[in-house]
Specification:
164 residues, alpha+beta, Muramoyl-pentapeptide Carboxypeptidase, domain 2, three-stranded antiparallel beta sheet
Length: 164
């Protein structure tokens, strides 16, 4: 059955009408609503499709510790907490030609959509691909306080300084 779709006004990149799989939606549960909203808006304007990997949303300390022991993160979840533990971070993978992709060009396109969306919604985020000490291209996080663009603050970005 064919259905007429009404397209929103095309911007510089034609919307491709990507939508999240139920799995990706489930993986975002518990994440800060602002970040979920940004992800939805980003998907609607992104030139490249993307989804949420396992452990890409909120993590327990135990899960963070396990990822640390597997060498998948620099934050052990105990001494160095991850923003994923507070639901303030979200990881993505690009989805290109029917396959997951972590290629720089694809993740950069996704990041452009995230940044544009966050800006439009007046929410401050950081993309791990902009970090210099350790580049984490699939990673986005909410920045509640302006900790500045100093690369030395990167480790701090993973640790809640003070949270009530
Ligand atoms: Zn992450």
């Amino acid at each position: 059955m064919t259905k007429k779709t009404t397209k929103p006004k095309a911007k510089k990149v034609k919307p491709k009408h990507f939508s999240f799989s139920q799995t990706s939606l489930d993986r975002m549960k518990g994440v800060d609503q602002r970040l979920i909203d940004i992800a939805h808006k980003a998907l609607s304007i992104s030139a490249v499709d993307f989804g949420i990997p396992q452990y890409g949303g909120i993590r327990t300390g135990k899960e963070q510790g396990w990822l640390y022991s597997e060498g998948k993160t620099k934050l052990d979840g105990l001494v160095k907490r991850s923003k994923h533990q507070d639901g303030l971070a979200l990881d993505v993978f690009a989805y290109v030609n029917g396959k997951a992709s972590w290629k720089e060009e694809h993740l950069t396109a996704v990041a452009d959509a995230f940044k544009e969306s966050a800006k439009a919604m007046d929410i401050k985020i950081e993309w791990g691909g902009d970090w210099q000490n350790f580049v984490d291209m699939p990673h986005f996080e909410i920045v509640d306080k302006d900790i500045g663009g100093d690369p030395s603050s990167i480790v701090l970005a993973g640790i809640p300084l003070k949270r009530g």
